[in-house]
Amino acid sequence: MNKPNLIPCFLLAAGRGERMRPLTDELPKPLLTIKNKSLLAWHVEALSSAGIQDVVINHAWLGRKIEEALGNGSQFGLNITYSPETSALETAGGIRKALPLLNPRDYFLVINGDVFSPNLPIQQLLNQAPNLRSMSSRPLAHLLMVPNPAQHPEGDFYIKDSQVANEPLDGAEKLTFSGIGLYHRDLFKDLELDVPTKLAPILREAMSKNRVSGEKYTGPWHDVGTPQRLQELNAANE
Questions:
Q1: Pairing outcome for strands 115-116 and 163-165
Q2: Strand partners, 38
Q3: 2 occurs within a structural domain
Q4: Which of 28, 61, 140, 220 is the most buried (most CB within 10 A)?
Q5: How much is the pTM?
C-alpha cells in the first residue's frame, strides 16, 4: 500500500440504472459484478491500494444494500461514509450535498460508480494535485479523458496540451470524459443544496474560463451501461 493520501474520494452510486433493468430492479447498479466482484468493490480496493483513506458514497435507489455490502470500509482499510439522497440529485447536486462529509482541503477525487477500469490510474491522478495547486489560474477540474467508445463515437470534450475545452481547439483531440476526475471544492460553492444539478453545464462554464485541465488515458475503461456490456465484460474476464 502507498503512503496515506489526504485527498478524499467521492463515489457516485445514486443512479437508478434504468438501462440495466431488470438486473437493477432489486440491486443497485454499482453492485453488479464483474469476475464475482462488484463495481464498487473494484473501486474501493483500488482506492485503498493508492493510499486513499476517506471515501464518501452517495446512494438513492436501494442504497441500504450498498451500505450492507461495504459497511464502514474497515474491511478495505478505508473510512467509508454515506450521503443518502431521497431522490437522485444528479452528479453535481450529489457532490454539493456530500461536500461537508468530504471536507476537502481543496481538491477531491470523484469516480462514477458504474465504470469498470481495473487498472485505474488513481495515483497518477492524485499526483496531479500539487501541479494544479501551483498553477496561476488554478483549475477547477482535472478530467481523465478516454478514447471514444463504440457507443459514444462523437466524444465529449476537446483536449490539447492538458487543456480541456467544449469548443474545438486547433490540433485538439475530441475524447470522452471517463467519469473520473479531480475537482476543486470551489466548482460547487454556488450550487443550492438538495437541488438536482447536472455536472456537464458547470464544467462547460469552467471551460469557457480556461479553468479545466485533463489528460488522456488509454488503459482499460468501460462504461457498464447495458446488460449486454456487462455480459461481454464478464465473458472477456473468464
A1: unpaired
A2: 33
A3: no
A4: 28
A5: 0.94
